[in-house]
Amino acid sequence: MPSMHEDLESMTTKKKQDDDEEYCLDVPVTEIATNSSSNEEEPITTTTSSTPSSSSLSSPYATSPMLYSVIFILLPVFSERFAFNGVVFTFPGFSDIQTGSYISMTQGIGYMSPFFTAFVADALLGDYKTILIFTILFCIPGLFLIAVVSIPDSLNTQDFPTKALHVGTHILFPLGFGAAKTLYGVYAAKQYNPKTQAEKTKQFFVTFTAVEFIGSFLGAVVCIIMSSIGHFIASGFTCAAVLVIGLLFFIFGTKRYVNGELKRKRYMLMLLTIVDAISCCKRTKPNEKNNNHMSYDMDQLLRDTSQDIDCDPDESNDQVSNVVLLHCKFMQNSGLFNGPMVVSTSYLFIGFWAVLIKKYITPLLGRRNITLTISNKFVLGSLFLTLGLAVDAIIASQMIRMYDESGGAISIFYGLFATFFIGGMAFSLAATNELAFVVASAELKMLGTAVMLFLTQGIPNILGAQLFRRCRDWFDVNGVQASTLEEYAHSDSLNFMYVLMGFTLYDVILFSLPPVWRWMDNFEETSKANNLRADTECNTATYSTSNVLSTISENNVWKVAIMIFLSVE
Prior knowledge:
The chain is mainly α. It is built from 23 helices and two strands. This is MFS general substrate transporter.
């Protein structure tokens, strides 16, 4: 029978082992976390062992990723959004219509670049190096070029250097912020263990949304104030400096990041699979010599593609800012609080709603065993945006009524009622990022995010810019853009607001239909199951042609394609 001394010694040893285990979980193994240039496709895994300590040592994930590594990724996210909105809110010399169209086109170009960025990150350089290269070579030079162009005679040109401005706003800067939108969120989410920290990953995207839009708000406010007091040139260089500081913080956390392996082999097999499929698309009989050629990759490619092309609703928020800005132009300003400042508060309220969702709404619903599905979040986000547009339409109507009765203007602060409701878009914005990450296969997270950005930001911004131009007559009086409250009162600008409300109501109705939200919930769960199955299947497994066809049916690829066209506004 063991003595009391032996029992005490045993308990002390066990406690020490537990403490060692907890410490090991907090410190990633640098050999696993370092950037790899290997061509081999070896996903990060946690090896099982009979002892907890050995399991802990083999895991590259920290027990508290937010404090250990993610915070160093969120800081450049904040600075990038600060810089972006500092630039887009300060375009002196451009009319309101020109500015809105110009910004929409810049955003549209930027959100088409994620496909190239995803390929570079997944197959060529890795996430970490791609972030560094695109920020250093594109985003920062683009910001400095835009700032330099604003200095009179800085480029020794007789006329305004429009071509140089286009290089900054349509090439360098879009490639930079497009890469940032693709990489930062996914790279930060990859710091969480997909098996044991899945719930934390979902909550992270709410935090990510809050950081993005608080940075957007502060960037817009700071640069608007600097421009209003005559320091426009300094505001441009401030944006570039803030981004440099954010990049330095990102580099500071280098040794803490979890980095996966390159997917060169995966992308090559995908390309060969597509070529193989095209070459035999007209065959009526299976090829005896090549019946199983890369058949596993065909199956997985079909699953990955249908999951990446998910049903992301496009919101009309990109054009909402332009319309709200036009309305606020004819309100009574209060000091430095003007139209652009009101529009920037929508970013603040989105961040506010994101914090509210994470800290209060989600826990409150959880205590009542209520879980918001992806479709629920889409409906709520679209509903709040519709309410914001409705409130803004009411405010615009009151502006016209006030002018007709007394010839005066209403206070600029009324615009805050509209931007408060617009902030409720945080529901759908966080859900969109979450869906793109969760549904995409483990090997194609970046590609899934690229597809999401292209469908929800790239195409809508370009179409929105064209729509804005087509409807320009609604903002004109006798062929001239309204520049006074009297001219605005006699314009048809409210019609464009009603068009945007129609788009958002369409989203609300679409994602409220029982067949649609049931399909979306099933789609999410099926995609997760497919990802788990792909992790356990052997790459050398073979499948028949009928198996490939069953995979198409299983993933509802045709339904997904139809839903994409229905949901894009």
